[in-house]
Automatic annotation (TrEMBL):
Key words of the record: Membrane, Signal, Transmembrane, Transmembrane helix
Organism of derivation: Bacillus cereus
Transmembrane segments: 339-363
Domain annotation Fibronectin type-III: ranges: 146-233
Origin superkingdom: Bacteria
Protein name: Fibronectin type III domain-containing protein
Pfam family, one: fn3
Signal peptide coordinates: 1-26
Amino acid sequence: MKFKKCGFLLFFAMMFCFAIPNFASAAVVDLLEGKTGTLGSKEFKNMTDGDKNTYEKVYTKEPIMFDLGDVYTVDKFTINETKGTGSENPASLYVKYYDSNKKVLASYTKFTFTEKINDVRYVSIQYQYLNPIWIYEFKVYGTTDKVTDVENLKAETGLNQVTLSWNNPDTPKFTGVNIYRDKYSLVKLDKSKNSYVVKGLESAKEYEFTVKSIDENGFETSGATKKVTTKMPVLPPPDKVFVTPQNGKLVIAWNGVSSPYFKGYNVYVDGKKINDKPLNSSKLIVNNLENDKSYKVQISTVNKNDVEGEKSKEVSEKPSSSALEVEYDVKMPFSPLDLLTSSVSLLAILGGFVLLSIAIIWFKPLKELIVKAVRKGKDKK
């Protein structure tokens, strides 16, 4: 009896030991994350990009098809898992599973459903009711022992760097990741790492980063990809601000800020912004002010992303009824460069006449010769 009992316990222990590796080697993952759906020539990426804030407007009677890239056992699917579907009507909604020959294995008219289906290679979704449905998340969960793409890839942008972070696949065959920037290899990381800072980038430039999982044989997955644009520099304020008092007004001028990221200026009087939108000029007349009252003026610069920089140092001035009145509103019809160019051209035209006049005055033989020629001309007439 004891022998039978020991034999049973030994058999149970062996079964348990063999079962553990099989259990540990499989993981439930979102098989659709990073995959692209297609409908003819149109692509759908936003509902499977792992970002719950991006979406696709789905309104089609034809299926949007996703290729899982391999055959999997599917456990369930969800639509708008985080945000919920609220009062959306699943009428005319179809989610379908297909085998490698695109034969339909299962079809559902629900926003979420749990059912284990084997040998799934393709998944499709379609919807055509009254209005388009906004799909932020379309997830298909499946069990696999293969190394899959990293999930939840995020990119936090800085001025000259991007910080990437992600969730690594939960499988023993996963050994690390390769990171690419615009198709060029950047770095290889082991499986203990799930973030990386890419430095030395240009400001306000778009980059594409791809993180590819690596298995124990060194093979890569297709990878999860993010496109991001680095931040634009915050521009400094003008280095000099000039305030000229007038009767009941102030004339404000400042040195311009030169930058390819420049959009305009904001003007502040006593801490209050007085312009509705950024100014392109470097001068402003503020009217309807009280004479003999001090006003503090500051200028800031705005970049093309509408990010405002620091304000300039305060410059204080008082309008005065006795101030010399100058007509600042009259705009010159030409710039200083135009004036210089015109002056040089005029000098080139008149220069010859001036030199000839000087020669006539100071060179007497030439003067006498010209006088004789003029007299002969008159005599002939």
